[in-house]
Amino acid sequence: MMEGVTGIGPLPWGRQVDIVAGLLMGFWRHWLMLGFLALPAGVWGAPAVLQGTPPPPELPRELRAVWIASKANIDWPSKPGLTMAAAQGELRDLLEMARSTGLNAVVFQVRPQGDALYESTLEPWSEYLTGREGLAPSPKWDPLDFVVREGHARGLEVHAWINPFRAKTGTTKSPVSPRSLARRRPDLVVSYGNQTWMDPGLPEVRDHGLRVVSDLVKRYDIDAVHCDDYFYPYPVKDGAGRIIPFPDDGSYKKHGRGKGRSDWRRWNVDDFVRRAGAAVHREKPWVQFGISPFGIWRPGVPPGIKGLDAYETLAADARLWMAEGWVDYLVPQLYWNISQREQSFPVLLHWWGGQNPKGRNLYAGIASARIGTDRNAGEIASQVRLTQEFKGADGMMFWNGSSLKKNRGGVVEVLRSGPLDGPAVIPASPWLWTNGPVLTRFGVKPEGRNEYVASWGVKNPGEVRQWAVQVRRGVVWSLEVLPPGKREARFKVSAVAPPPAEVRLVPVGRAGALGAAGYWRQP
Prior knowledge:
- By secondary structure, the chain is of the alpha/beta class.
- It has two domains: 63-169 and 202-416, Glycosidases (TIM Barrel, Alpha-Beta Barrel); 439-521, Sandwich (Immunoglobulin-like).
- It has helices at 13-34, 84-100, 127-130, 143-153, 181-184, 203-219, 249-255, 261-283, 310-313, 318-324, 345-353, 377-389, 401-405, 411-416, and strands at residues 63-68, 105-111, 157-162, 166-168, 189-192, 195-198, 224-227, 236-237, 243-244, 288-291, 329-330, 361-366, 395-398, 439-446, 451-458, 464-473, 476-482, 488-492, 502-509, 518-521.
- The chain has an eight-stranded parallel barrel with strand order 1-2-3-7-10-11-12-13, surrounded by six helices. Strands 17-16-19-20 form a four-stranded antiparallel beta sheet, with no helix packed on it. Strands 4-6-5 form a three-stranded antiparallel beta sheet, with no helix packed on it.
- Strand 8 (236-237) and strand 9 (243-244) form a beta hairpin.
- Helix 2 packs parallel to helix 4 (143-153).
- The radius of gyration is 27 Å and the shape is globular.
C-alpha cells in the first residue's frame, strides 16, 4: 500500500546528479536556440535558429520517375544496330530530359523478353540493341553500366526493369539465340498466340528468374529492381473473339498441389515476388524491389470500378504483396482520366493507398504517352497534383520516355511551371537502409565581392545519391538538389540577391537515407 506523499525528502545522489545535468542541458539548449553557439562552419544534424528567422523548411520528398522502354524500340534505342556513339547519345538525351524535367529517377528496361541489354552470362544480348538476339554490340559496351554511371552523375536513381516470364513477343524479328532459355530448355516454355512464355508454374523457370535478379543486383550499382505487370500474359483471343486458355496443363498437372488453377497460378507468382524481394535484399540490403501492377486489383474494388481482373487474369495479387511487405514500392498503372468514373484515377489512387499497412512507398503510374488521344498535358499535371496532395502517395512514374522527350502537348513546360516547379529529394525506404553519407568537412566563404562558395567532403562518396542544399537569403529559403559528384555550390550576390545568411547541406544516400547535415550561418 502506498502512503500519501506531502513533501519530498532527501534524494539519492544519482538522482541529484540527473537533475543538475538536466538543468544544465536545458540551459545549453536555450543558449543554442538563441544562436550564441552557432559557428561559421561545422557539421550539424540540425541548425541553430536565431529568434525571428525562419527555420529551414522540411525537404520535399517524392519520387519523380520515367519508364524508358527497350521492347520493340519504344523509347530506346530508336532502332536496332545503332553505332555505340549514336546509342549512347540517345541515352544521354533521355537522361538529360529526365533531369531537366525535374525528375529524379529512371526505370530502364534491361530484360524485355528473356534477353539482356547488359553483359550477361545467363541470357543473350537483346535484338532490340543489335538487331539479332545473341549478337553482342561491337565495339562491346554495356548499356546498363552506362545508364548507372550517367544517371547517378545527374543525380538520378536507376531502377533496372525486367519482365519476369516473357520469352518472345510478336514484335520479335530475329531467330531465338542458342543461349536463350527457350532454346536451351524448350520444356520450360509454351507458345501463346504469337508469343512464347516461360511457364511460371515450373519451379525451374522461377529459379532462373531469381538468378537473373541476383546477378543484376550483385554486379551493378542499381537502386532498384523493377518488374512490370506481365506475370501471366494478358488474354489472347482467337479469330472468333474467344479467349485462348494459357497452355499450362502440363505444369499444373505436375505441380498443382491440389489447388484450383487460379489459386495455383497466383501462388506461383506470389512465390516469385516474395523470393525476388528477398534475393535483392540478400545481395544488397539498400536496393529496392518494386512492381508496377495493372491499376485495377479486381472489378468492383472499390465499388463502381470496372475493368480487367488482374487478380484472376494475370494471377497478380498486388494487394497481398503490399500488405506482406514483399515489395518496397508499388506503382499501380493508373492510366485513366480523372473524370473516367469506372476507372477513376483519384478513386483508385486512394484505394491503393489504403492497402499499405507496412508503409511501403506508393507511386502513381501516369500515362503521359496518351497525350493527344484522350487527354492533354493539363490532365497529366492535374494527376500529378492529386498525387502530391494525397498523403498516402510518395511520388509518380511517367509512361513513357518518348512522350516526355518529344514534349508531347507541351507537357514538360506544363509540369515545370506547375507541380514539378522546384526540385524534390528521393523518398526514403527506412526499413531497408538508414545509414546516410558522412560529411568530413563543410564550410562557406566569400569568393570575391559577388559570390559565396560552399564546399564539403564526404567519407563514403559511393553511397551518395544527391545533395540537398538549402539557402536562406533574408527570410526566404531556397532548395537546390545537386548530383553526387558535386563538392561545392556557388551563390551569386547582386542587387536582387543578397548574400546567403544560412546554408544547410543534407547528404542523401542509398534508399534515400539522409546523413547528418552540414550547417553554416553568416557570423
